[in-house]
Amino acid sequence: MTSDFFAQVRQCFASTDVDEKLGLTHHLAAQVRQNKVYIKQSLVHFGEVLTSQSNGFPDKPALVSAVQVPKRGFGTEEGRAIMIHAIAHIEFNAINLALDAVQRFAGMPEAYYADWLRVADEEAYHFELIRAHLRFLGADYGDYPAHQGLWDMAEKTAHSVLERMALVPRVLEARGLDVTPGIQDKLRQAGDKHAATILDIIFADEVGHVEVGTRWFHHLCKQEGKKPDETFFALIKKHFPKGIYGPYNVEARAAAGFSDNEIELLLKGKLKKQT
């Protein structure tokens, strides 16, 4: 196997075999932690990025529009399986999103690449936890159709690392911080305490992942002489002209680096609920 960091990241990213992608991602993260693969040595020959057609999604699940996704529920085992499958698909997307954040954007500090590889490794772990529970419910990843909302935004922000940091971690992934506690309550009411406990693990890590996005967004704003709050809301207006969904998990968003001003504007309806 090549010792080049970015070549290995692209190998992880391009893999369309679920188990292979998980194994390659965990292996590379371990190699970096053990100082067997060095990011710094690879920075001098970043290489050509993979295109959106090489984003490493398996043949299943079938990808459909959001309105065609099967109805999720908590009252039946199949309904919960569909819900857990949707979460598994989000986590699988998150692996690719983190790997793409590494392989796509040249010229960032070494710590940026280390951060997003760590995120990819943790997202792979999350996927494994969710898939194990999905199998317990009698299903597996790929059994139900899914939609690609997360990856659509990755393609829209492929030209700009600043826009990627603003809109994927701080909008789409932050939405998970808002909705996860409610999903957990419903899972517990349905008697699926194990799934709720898994989401505790994921939620704690996801606060950190959104914080990584916030930190690098602020770094890029400072580098480009932009004000973070103004830039963030301008990008929201550009990409989400109808607004974004509330309510918001204020405590979790604050822990993930959202400023008091951003939270105040969120709560005042600056980013209104979609109609």
Summarize the structure.
It is built from 11 helices and no strands.
What would your notes on this structure say?
By secondary structure, this protein is mostly helical. The chain has one domain (5-50, 76-267). Helix content is 65%, strand content 0%. It is built from eleven helices and no strands. Helix 7 packs antiparallel against helix 8. It is globular. The relative contact order is 0.11.
Key terms for this structure?
11 helices; globular; 275 residues; mainly alpha
* Average pLDDT number: 92
Total number of beta strands = 0
Question: What's the number of structural domains?
Answer: 1
Distance between the termini: 51 Å
Q: What would you call the shape?
A: globular
- As a percent range, the share of strand residues is under 5%
Give the structural class: mainly alpha
Low-confidence stretches: none
How large, in whole angstroms, is the Cα Rg? Answer: 18 Å
Largest sheet: none
**Helicity level, as a percent range?**
55-70%
Query: Secondary-structure element order, as H and E?
Result: HHHHHHHHHHH
Q: How many distinct helices?
A: 11
Write the layout of secondary structure elements.
Layout: H1 5-14, H2 18-33, H3 39-42, H4 77-104, H5 110-136, H6 149-156, H7 161-189, H8 193-224, H9 228-239, H10 250-255, H11 260-267
